[in-house]
Amino acid sequence: MDELILPPLLNGIRAQDPFDFAVKQVRQRKAGAGDLYWSHKQDDVDLAIVLEPDVACSRAMEMVPLVMVALSDCLAVLLPPQVAVQFRQSKSIIVNGGIVGGIKSAMAKTENQTDVPDWLVLSVTVGLSRTDTSNEPGLNPDVTTLDEEGWEQVSQSKFTETFARHFLSWLAVWKDDGFKPVARAWKFKAEEETEPEMTKIRKDMLFFESAF
Hints:
By secondary structure, the chain is α+β, with helices and mostly antiparallel strands. Helix content is 33%, strand content 22%.
């Protein structure tokens, strides 16, 4: 069984459904900043990171495009140089024109955009290979997997470790230099060649009251 070795700021925890479980745990105050829930699957990457923002809700949402930029850097390491990685709006990851994965996010409810949310959960899913042999790639050209695009077949845990390092690196950039470097990197990968729209990010985000 693969061992997950993460940077000191992150704490790896196995979970069957990382996003839903992370949201449940943090709402019940059983999870905290830096907890990274991950599912040990053979065919896809499935993980969720818990954050405890110290900025207003409007700024905390900047973590969504930051995660996407970190994921694109992770994919650049694992995929051949000629493979194109793009973003579709603020939730889909596109590789060579096909959807390979996506982003989900959830945040504690606040009264307004200037309040600091108690927590934020960011989720990443990426398809590594197809499980259904009857679902041939040509039958669904809008969806792909990393295996079909020539990725270096490392373990799911190694993929998670690589992503975690890029995430923390971009988080440091964001803390030191603000959102502009993240927005520029995001725009470079966006299909529409525009910076991320925070209104769309907020629309796609789930909001929850505390369980207490």
